[in-house]
Each structure stands twice: as structure tokens, then as C-alpha cells.
Amino acid sequence: MSALHDHTHCIADALTRADALCAERGARLTALRRRVLELVWSSHRPRGAYAILEDLSQQDGKAAAPLTVYRALEFLVEQGLVHRIESLNAYVGCAAPGDVHSGQFLVCEACGDAAEIDDPGVGAAIIAAAAGRGFRVQRPTVEVRGLCKSCQETSR
Amino acid sequence: MSALHDHTHCIADALTRADALCAERGARLTALRRRVLELVWSSHRPRGAYAILEDLSQQDGKAAAPLTVYRALEFLVEQGLVHRIESLNAYVGCAAPGDVHSGQFLVCEACGDAAEIDDPGVGAAIIAAAAGRGFRVQRPTVEVRGLCKSCQETSR
DNA sequence: GACAGAGTGTTATAAAGTAACACCCATGTC
DNA sequence: GACATGGGTGTTACTTTATAACACTCTGTC
């Protein structure tokens, strides 16, 4: 997530994909929900619910209540359009909505970027480990803190 | 974590291990910190900071402030005596303090139990996935939601 | 156009976590 | 013994994150 990428384009893409997915599923991507999704995507970094709330208030002029944002986020998470990053209490746009996947993140301590990966090896290892203990997996959460490639290079 | 286990004994064990570890490291396991550790262990379930705070107030009669508990927990987490479960905002005693490990949890949605595992396959898969992307791992978090063995059997 | 149900607004409140600063007390030093 | 030092604790106030309860509105359906 860097200088070399057309961010406006990638927000537009995310919205288009969301429109298509919701239409297909009969889920209602209302104006508010769409707007919240757009605000989540407004950076590639995880954003807190209250940051989004502030955007709504400032950019749109309406003083929204926290619940407004939380309900929209809940919908977006259910639809797989957004992931919640537990260790940050924050939300980030899903790079591959529609695909079945669990949400694995490499969270950089330096720049705050959260790169979503969907590593089959990690997923398989978790399922195997759980199965060995008789545990039925419903929702795996993997959030790896560390330093991303570009931050390692910078700090050197 | 069930009827068949001597819980009193296992709390005492945890405290003994903590004493030994801290002595060895020159870390100060003060009365307060020791007491908080004991309260974390008072069930095998993850406990919130405020639940521990309440215990302190009720059982010990002192009306402690949140910070008191948070500071003790911070110390205990640093020493690896306690893990924080991000997705629950809660803390749980570490089953194997002293050993190097990262904290992987199988969290049962039904009974609330959080079983700590240290599966080498999962750890290795995460490191491999990160390495493939140039990411330097500092602290992996794995929290798997699902149903534990005994809850699956019960619900059947 | 009346109904049902989903979505949204509003107010209040709970839960989780932190900042700033004062005090205490064990330890080592002179 | 007096003293400085620094880690640990207490206290007050506050911020951030999240939810409850209830009323209202919009949208599609018959």
C-alpha cells in the first residue's frame, strides 16, 4: 500500500464489487452503508468506528450517533465486505469479498498498515490443530504484529 | 477444563511457578501483582480487567482503581504469566509460562472456555506466510472461535 | 393505502482503557 | 543515619469503544 497505487480507483472498485455482491445476495447496501464502506476504504489502514463517525459528521455535515456507524459496520462485516481487526478495535476493507476466507492480517507496528493475506497453509494448520483437539472451528482470527517490508527497509 | 480437575491446586501451581520465574529474572512479583494473577486464574475462563477489579474490591475490601489492575496485568503479560485475548478484551493465565510461545487459543462460543495451545504447525505456517511477504513477525495472535469438544457433545 | 419488516435516529448508558501527578517505600550510596 | 533514586501504588479525572431501549421512517407487497 504505497505511493504506487491509484487509491481512488481502488475505492471505486471496492464499491462496485460491493454493489454487485449485495445485489446478488439480495442484501440492501443502503446509501448510509455504502458511505460507511467508502469511509472504511478511505485509507488502507484499519480505521476505528469513531474515526469513521467523525468523517461522517465533518464531511457530510450530519452529526451521526455511534450506533449509526456500528450498525453499518456490523452489516458490512456480516457481508464480508469489511473485516474487524480485534487487536486494534478497528475495521478495514476486505480485499477479496465474495471469496470464502477467514481474514488473516499482517499488521505493521511502524506504519499501521494491515495487509490482508489468505494463506492456505495457515488456515490448514489451524484446522488441523483444532481437529486434533476435537474443537470445531467457526471463525479463526489471525493478526500478526510485526514490521512490514518497507518499514524494515526504511528503518535500516 | 472440567469437573475432573483440582482447580485449587492448579492456581497454587501457577503462583508457585510465577514466584520461581520472577525470582529467577529479578522481576518483582509484588503482593498486588500476585493477587491479580491469582484472580486471573480464579477460573480457567478469560476474565475482563473490570471483573478482576470487582473481585479485588469485594473480596479484599479495597476499592481499587482500574489503573491498579491494568498496571498489574501489564506486568503479568510482559512476564508471560498471563495472555490477553484480544477478541474478548480479557485475560487468562498462561499454562506454560517460561516456555517461549506465542499464545494460540481455541475459544469456545458456548462455554466461554479458552484453551491455550502451542501448535508448532500453526506457528511455522504463520512465519512462512509472513516471510514470503517480507514481513518480520514480532507477535502473532491466533484466536479461533468455535465449539469445544465437550460443548459439541452436549449440544447433540 | 395499509401493513410488515428492515433500516435509521435519538438519548442515555455501559464497558474498556489511559493521562497526569502525588505519594510511598525498598534499595543503594555516601 | 541521612539521602537520593527509581519502581510501584494511589487518586482523580478523562477518553475511547460499544450497546440498550425505544421511537420513527422508508420500502416493497398485497
TrEMBL record, chains A, B:
Zn(2+) binds at C108, C111, C148, C151. Its cofactor is Zn(2+). The keyword Metal-binding applies. Transmembrane segments: none annotated. Pfam families: FUR (PF01475). One of its GO terms (biological process) is negative regulation of DNA-templated transcription. SUPFAM superfamilies: Winged helix' DNA-binding domain. Gene3D superfamilies: 3.30.1490.190, Winged helix-like DNA-binding domain superfamily/Winged helix DNA-binding domain. One of its GO terms (molecular function) is transcription cis-regulatory region binding. Binds 1 zinc ion per subunit. It comes from the Bacteria. One of its GO terms (cellular component) is cytosol. InterPro entries: FUR, Fur_C, WH-like_DNA-bd_sf, WH_DNA-bd_sf. Keywords: DNA-binding, Metal-binding, Repressor, Transcription, Transcription regulation, Zinc. Belongs to the Fur family. This is Transcriptional repressor.
